[in-house]
Each structure stands twice: as structure tokens, then as C-alpha cells.
Amino acid sequence: MSNFIIGAACGLAVALIIAIYFSMKLSTLRKEKKTEVEKYRNMLAERMEIESAGVNKLKAENEELRKTNENLRVSLLAMREKPGRKELERLQVMQTAADRLVLNSPGFAPVWQAALKESEEEFRKTYSGLMPFLKRHIPLKTSDAQLIDDSSDTTV
């Protein structure tokens, strides 16, 4: 029996040495995997941080471009509303023609002055009271007959 115990003890000793060896190797592998996983987590965190910064930068740039676009759209609409050079030239030509008619036509001047005075008064009314509301919401059209009747009343 003593041979059996010696053989069993030698076998257990070899098995214990092998078990310790493999447990140390397994422990080393676990540490390596843990460090590798930590390395990949750090890389992923850095990449996500970089991408987040890039996305934030793109969003800010997009918002800035959107504001610039809106400003340009408003400016374009304002430019469309301003009278251009052609309109001012046309207005000057019409004023010159009206001045010549006043000087050259003896009966035209009083009628013109009366019509001009009425138009100026109507224009002043458009900025106060009920007239601005009406002009905005109800288009007022003048007929030629009404203009002729008004002008004939002022000459009589």
C-alpha cells in the first residue's frame, strides 16, 4: 500500500503543479484581456468624443449658415421693396412732364394744383385713422368717371 500512496501522492503533486501552472496562465490571460478591453474602451471613448465634437461643430456651422441664409433672404426682400434707379428716373421724368404742362397749358395749372392738393391730403390720411385699415384690407379703386367729375367740379 505504501507504493500506492507514494504513486498517488506523486500523481497528485504533478496534477497540482499542472493545475497551478494553468491557473497562473489563465490569470495572466484574464489580465491581458482586461487590459485589452480597457484599451478598446478608451479608444472608443476618444473616438466618440472626437465625433461628438465634430457633430457639434457641424451643428453650430449649420445653425450659423441658417441664420446667414435668413438674413440674406430678409435683405433680398428689403431690396425688392426699395425703389430702384429706373423707378426714380421714371418719377423724375413724370415730374418734369407735369412741370412743363403747368407752364405751357394755361388751363392745366389750376386743375393740376387742385388734384395735387387732394392727392396730398388723401396721402396724409392714409397714415392716420380708418384709411390705413381700409387700404390694407379693402382695395380702393378710383374710376376715370369719378376723376373727371371731381375735376369738372373744381373748374366750375
Please, could you describe this protein's structure?
This protein is mostly helical and 156 residues long. The chain has 2 domains: 82 residues; 73 residues, no CATH class. It is 88% helix and 0% strand. It starts with a helix and ends with a helix.
Features:
88% helix, disordered C terminus, mainly alpha, single chain, 5 helices, 156 residues
Largest sheet: none
Total count of helical runs of at least 4 residues: 5
- N- and C-termini, Cα separation: 155 Å
Question: Unreliable stretches, pLDDT < 50, 5 or more residues?
Answer: 144-156
Structural class: mainly alpha
Short structural description:
The chain is mostly helical. The chain has 5 helices and no strands. The chain has helices at residues 2-81, 85-104, 108-125, 130-137, 144-155.
What's the structural blueprint in terms of helices and strands?
Layout: H1 2-81, H2 85-104, H3 108-125, H4 130-137, H5 144-155
